[in-house]
Amino acid sequence: MREDESNWFSKWEEELPSPEELMPLSQTLITPDLAMAFDIPNPSTTTSNNPQLLHQTLTPPPPPPNNTTSSEFVDSAELGGGGGSGGDEPARTLKRPRLVWTPQLHKRFVDAVAHLGIKNAVPKTIMQLMSVDGLTRENVASHLQKYRLYLKRMQGISSGGGGGGAGGGSDPATDHLFASSPVPAHFLHPAGGRPGSEHFLSTFVPYHHQHHQMAGPLPQQPQQYRQIGHIGLQPNGQFEHPFMSNRPVLHRIGGAPVGHHNPVGASPYVEDMESGTAANGRKVLTLFPTGDD
DNA sequence: TCGGCAATAT
DNA sequence: CATATTGCCG
């Protein structure tokens, strides 16, 4: 099933050029929506620390599913031919592997929602703000759905709490993931319910996430993590508690990745990655830069 | 077309 | 069994 897809996927990842190669290409691709999202019509408390720099990391080039075995004719064909497009927009019809929402990734999600505000906390905006490659609206929408339910559940049980530890009522399911991310109290109630208090979080750094999950039986060869130069995985790879895996160790991307980057000082920081183990025994490698604050 | 909710598949 | 994915509806 999806294992098939893992083929091109794993290969594709290896084929992926080093982020540093792509880094210098980080152009300020700020979608109008995104810019508008940040440009909140409220000059009153408009702090000048607005993260205007956000490079959206779109899905990398189309991975040529060149399988050594199946010699099915795949060449030529082009892209419909007619289009006249420059030949972009890769596999849009292909199914991706199950996206594993890791606590860190979730935090990013929550962060985006918090920054945008419930009002603008729509899948599309969130997705754009997150700037996570491979992330699609469906992913966010689906997760957003669960997220709301989680908040709802929490309200009825725990009025305060929230924050690091579980807190009181916690569903065994949703909690596991959601409890890991600090939920802004503002989410529970529409503070004023009118524009003005949208963003709370501090600096929203334009993360560059290279997070692709693949499930299923991986090839014998140990999943080679992206040799991003600084990315190192713990030999143990032991899966610890979501909230316990907080490592303040930030590695700065050396090698002068970008000549001109954001002046906010939010340089591209990436944290160590850890591996996670599915409860089902299904081992999934999760590369996630921890954007913990 | 987007956003949300529900059902389903893995 | 839990979670993510997909589809349908507003």
Give the topology, please.
Elements lengths: L1 H14 L3 H4 L9 H7 L64 H18 L2 H8 L6 H21 L16 H5 L71 E3 L16 E3 L4 E2 L5 E2 L9
Antiparallel strand pairs: 1-2, 3-4
Helix pairs in contact: 4-5, 5-6
The structure holds a DNA duplex (10 and 10 nucleotides).
Mean pLDDT: 49
Task: Compute the number of helices.
Answer: 7
Low-confidence segments: 1-89, 161-167, 192-293
Strand order of the largest sheet: 1-2
Structure class: mainly alpha
Q: Tell me the helix content.
A: 25-40%
Rg is 20 Å
**Biggest sheet architecture:** 2 strands, antiparallel
Strand content: under 5%
Report on this structure:
The protein has 293 residues and is mainly alpha-helical. Helix content is 26%, strand content 3%. It contains 7 helices and 4 strands, in the order αααααααββββ. It has helices at 2-15, 19-22, 32-38, 103-120, 123-130, 137-157, 174-178; strands at residues 250-252, 269-271, 276-277, 283-284. The protein has a two-stranded antiparallel ribbon. It has a two-stranded antiparallel sheet with strand order 3-4. A hairpin with a 5-residue loop joins strand 3 and strand 4. The chain is globular, with a radius of gyration of 20 Å. The structure holds a DNA duplex (10 and 10 nucleotides).
Key words describing this protein structure:
4 strands; 7 helices; single chain; mainly alpha; two-stranded antiparallel ribbon; two-stranded antiparallel sheet; globular
